[in-house]
Amino acid sequence: MSDNSFYIVRGAKMFCDKGTHKRKINLPVSHGSYVKGKPKMNRCDVVPEENISYFGICNGECKEGEGDIYLVGEDGSTVSGKKCCFEAFDLWQQCKEDALVDGEPAIISDSYLICAHGGIIQFATTGQEDE
């Protein structure tokens, strides 16, 4: 691919295969590399609550808190269960090794992250889309 369409930037939507809700990846401070005026992400952007929020209800091995929480699902229905307690098992995998962002490989649309509680986090969008 010769264009920048596969780079992940702040605001890209992610999902966990064990969670009920999509979330946007965040980057509090830019690494200084941009696509379409939006900051690119790198493989180290895995900090819970700083880069990655919880994915709703966990259908994996999360056992956070006492009792269930209740959320409105993406389809409008009510969902309940244990709150997702995202914890990165490692850094982002399958990054673009030859494209460095602040000294680390860039996250791309094929990158994924493994949660310590059994989920696999992938991207639904790159964040480059006009909203």
Your description of this structure?
This protein is 0% helix and 25% strand. It is built from no helices and ten strands. The strands form four sheets. The chain has a four-stranded antiparallel beta sheet with strand order 2-1-10-9, with no helix packed on it. A hairpin with a 6-residue loop joins strand 1 and strand 2 (23-24).
What brief labels describe this structure?
mainly beta, 131 residues, four-stranded antiparallel beta sheet, globular, two-stranded antiparallel sheet, 10 strands, 25% strand
- In what range is the share of β-strand residues? 25-35%
Q: Mind describing the biggest β-sheet? A: 4 strands, antiparallel
Give average pLDDT, whole number. 91
Category by helix and strand content: mainly beta
| Distance from first to last alpha carbon | 24 Å
Q: Helical residue percent?
A: under 10%
How does the overall form come out from the CA principal axes? Answer: globular
Strands side by side in the biggest sheet:
2-1-10-9
Report the total helices. Answer: 0
Using only CA atoms, what is the Rg?
Answer: 15 Å
The ordered string of helix (H) and strand (E) elements is: EEEEEEEEEE
Question: How would the blueprint of this fold be written?
Answer:
Blueprint (H helix, E strand, L loop, with lengths): L12 E4 L6 E2 L9 E2 L2 E2 L29 E4 L5 E4 L14 E6 L2 E3 L6 E2 L5 E4 L8
Antiparallel strand pairs: 1-2, 1-10, 3-4, 5-6, 7-8, 9-10
